[in-house]
């Protein structure tokens, strides 16, 4: 009865693996309640922050106000919150001010940017350890709609897995978010990648253990994967039965030998092996992310690696890259905008000419009709002088066409005189020093004249401010139009059409002829040179992402005709019925305990990571493919083999009370001694 009460205290949603009995069930119930209370706390902190607005603080310019540097450094989510909110929160919870500030920022981010995540924690779909992946990968997305779509999609993915009794660990959620987030906002992805490339480097920091230090290197995914793979291959080459060092210790010593004693180690040369997974859309110029060494990477990084290895031709500027249609600059594009602003008005596009006319008409009406301050406006002659100077300074391009600014453009200013003096000076001669401006006349004696002078000065400042605001508004409008046109031109480009394709076949249709030719050449390349193996084609189910076959261009050609000699020589002319031809699928079973090369390659491509629920370790190279039904009772086939890491492979055979069931689709179901059930499927492509 006590156990039933404990379970009822938890959240409504049952754990993915089901409720355990005894103390483990109490742990599950407590974990659900912690997640629910974390959501309750986030909502309460956000409600408290709303009661402490920044408007009650001293405003910029007032004595004691927050400095401009500190204000700019605050997270955007705290912009409308009083700077003293974290201090009050720290007293209430017994936290440091820094800890309270982090809690405040995290709570506001969850409530305002990730509302679906808070609901999922209350329902029991997520627990508190899932938050870090969502805060790191979803919350920073600047576009509100894209952020909401990403959050919705990843929560639907977690719910779908839960319906199949597949648990989702924080590491799995983080990996999924890295893949799902890439390509959703290509501009932000590119900016983040450029910023990260500028931060590349190597650092050393003291370790908590005496005399030890940690060496950290920030590299790109291909570089890091290649370095680790090469060090591992060097370590594996040190085949000495008397050597008691672990593989990790050997890798560390090899690194020291290669860096500190180059040429003295007598280490044989080795070749790094990187597994690169890239779809048609990735290689053809789209933003679909790829995979290097099992980790998602931006599409452009995959293409750069392929070009570096000679698999793809170097990128050439052209319509496919710039989005240009070949008909001249696109109105609104940043380059086209510069051309518009430095060209005669009669060549401007209609939208820019209309916006410019509206801006000037409004400015002229307000300046000459006294629209800045009523009776405190500057005198008419002052307004006219300011208008002449402003118009002369900003409408120089329009002075020669008889437009609205022609009458005032002839009024010279001190700036014009300086330019004239500079242009008339001999070549190489120093520019003449402009004459000093005449000193202002002394203000008349008395308080009222001084007051009127101050009012006039303030009116002029307001005039200048309003003029600057109008210019800023026009610049923002032009930037918004340019950004919109930039996006539309990209959508019309081959890369945009490839990204919009619903499948790889549709992407091939949208690709240009040179792009299709480059892909065909890539698939025709054989192994050798810098490649460990020739490129393979993964045939996958478009709906589920399940791997159906792993093949190459030669096998595709062999399967694409009836097999008759004439059709073999010219497969493009084969018009026979191919119904009886064997289709693509997993390699056939292998006679013997160890799978053949084709089956081994297929299984490692299918599973990629350890299939135990929640594990993300890679399937080691050269082993750990387990027979679900032990050999020779079970065949060495794709339906009976599963990839594990070393530790979970040992556990399958040695941990008492555990059962493992593998169905023909590749779904592995694990049942614990306490009756909990978790299932995993091969990771989709």
Automatic annotation (TrEMBL):
<dbReference type="InterPro" id="IPR003615">
    <property type="entry name" value="HNH_nuc"/>
</dbReference>
<feature type="compositionally biased region" description="Pro residues">
    <location>
        <begin position="429"/>
        <end position="443"/>
    </location>
</feature>
<dbReference type="Pfam" id="PF02720">
    <property type="entry name" value="DUF222"/>
</dbReference>
<protein>
    <recommendedName>
        <fullName>DUF222 domain-containing protein</fullName>
    </recommendedName>
</protein>
<feature type="domain" description="DUF222">
    <location>
        <begin position="73"/>
        <end position="308"/>
    </location>
</feature>
<feature type="region of interest" description="Disordered">
    <location>
        <begin position="573"/>
        <end position="595"/>
    </location>
</feature>
<feature type="region of interest" description="Disordered">
    <location>
        <begin position="396"/>
        <end position="443"/>
    </location>
</feature>
<dbReference type="InterPro" id="IPR003870">
    <property type="entry name" value="DUF222"/>
</dbReference>
<feature type="region of interest" description="Disordered">
    <location>
        <begin position="475"/>
        <end position="495"/>
    </location>
</feature>
């Amino acid at each position: 009865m006590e156990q039933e009460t404990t379970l009822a205290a938890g959240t409504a949603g049952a754990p993915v693996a089901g409720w355990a009995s005894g103390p483990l069930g109490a742990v599950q119930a407590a974990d659900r309640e912690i997640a629910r209370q974390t959501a309750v706390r986030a909502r309460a902190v956000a409600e408290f922050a709303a009661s402490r607005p920044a408007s009650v603080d001293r405003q910029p310019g007032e004595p004691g106000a927050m400095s401009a540097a500190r204000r700019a450094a605050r997270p955007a989510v705290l912009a409308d919150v009083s700077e003293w909110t974290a201090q009050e929160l720290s007293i209430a919870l017994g936290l440091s001010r820094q800890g309270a500030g982090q809690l405040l920022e995290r709570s506001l981010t969850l409530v305002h940017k990730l509302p679906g995540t808070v609901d999922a924690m209350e329902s029991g779909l997520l627990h508190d350890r899932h938050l870090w992946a969502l805060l790191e990968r979803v919350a920073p997305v600047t576009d509100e709609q894209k952020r909401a779509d990403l959050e919705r999609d990843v929560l639907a993915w977690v719910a779908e897995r839960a319906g199949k009794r597949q648990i989702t660990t924080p590491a799995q959620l983080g990996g999924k978010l890295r893949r799902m987030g890439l390509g959703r906002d290509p501009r932000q992805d590119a900016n983040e990648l450029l910023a990260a490339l500028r931060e590349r480097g190597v650092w050393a920091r003291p370790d908590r253990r005496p005399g030890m230090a940690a060496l950290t290197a920030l590299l790109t995914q291909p570089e890091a994967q290649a370095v680790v793979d090469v060090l591992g291959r060097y370590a594996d080459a040190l085949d000495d039965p008397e050597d008691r060092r672990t593989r990790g210790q050997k890798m560390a010593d090899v690194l020291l030998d290669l860096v500190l004693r180059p040429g003295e180690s007598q280490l044989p040369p080795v070749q790094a092996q990187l597994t690169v997974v890239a779809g048609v859309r990735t290689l053809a110029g789209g933003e679909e992310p790829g995979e290097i060494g099992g980790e998602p990477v931006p599409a452009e990084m995959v293409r750069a690696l392929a070009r570096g290895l000679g698999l793809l031709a170097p990128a050439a500027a052209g319509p496919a890259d710039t989005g240009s249609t070949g008909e001249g600059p696109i109105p609104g594009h940043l380059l086209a905008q510069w051309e518009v602003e430095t060209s005669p008005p009669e060549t401007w596009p209609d939208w820019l000419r209309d916006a410019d006319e509206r801006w000037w008409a409004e400015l002229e009406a307000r300046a000459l009709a006294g629209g800045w301050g009523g009776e405190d406006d500057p005198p008419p002659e002052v307004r006219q002088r300011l208008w002449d100077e402003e118009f002369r300074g900003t409408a120089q391009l329009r002075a020669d066409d008889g437009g609205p600014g022609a009458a005032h453009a002839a009024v010279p200013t001190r700036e014009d005189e300086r330019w004239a003096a500079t242009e008339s000076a001999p070549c190489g001669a120093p520019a003449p020093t402009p004459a000093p401006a005449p000193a202002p006349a002394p203000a008349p004696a008395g308080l009222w004249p001084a007051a009127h002078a101050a009012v006039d000065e303030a009116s002029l400042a307001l005039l200048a401010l309003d003029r600057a605001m109008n210019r800023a508004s026009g610049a923002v409008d032009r930037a918004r139009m340019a950004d919109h046109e930039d996006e539309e031109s990209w959508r019309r480009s081959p890369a945009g059409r490839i990204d919009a394709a619903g499948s790889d076949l549709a992407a091939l249709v949208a690709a240009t002829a040179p792009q299709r030719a480059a892909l065909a050449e890539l698939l025709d390349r054989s192994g050798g040179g810098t490649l460990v193996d020739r490129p393979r084609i993964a045939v996958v189910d478009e709906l589920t992402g399940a791997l159906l076959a792993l093949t190459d261009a030669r096998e595709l050609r062999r399967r694409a005709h009836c097999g008759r000699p004439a059709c073999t020589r010219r497969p493009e002319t084969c018009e026979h019925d191919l119904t009886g031809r064997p289709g693509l699928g997993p390699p056939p079973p292998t006679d013997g305990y160890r799978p053949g090369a084709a089956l081994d390659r297929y299984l490692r491509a299918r599973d990629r990571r350890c299939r135990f629920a929640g594990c993300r370790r890679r399937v080691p190279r050269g082993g750990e493919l387990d027979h679900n039904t032990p050999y020779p009772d079970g065949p060495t086939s794709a339906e009976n083999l599963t990839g594990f890491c070393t530790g979970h492979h040992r556990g399958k055979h040695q941990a008492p009370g555990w059962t493992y069931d593998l169905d023909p689709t590749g779904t592995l179901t694990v049942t614990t001694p306490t009756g909990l059930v978790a299932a995993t499927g091969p990771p989709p492509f």
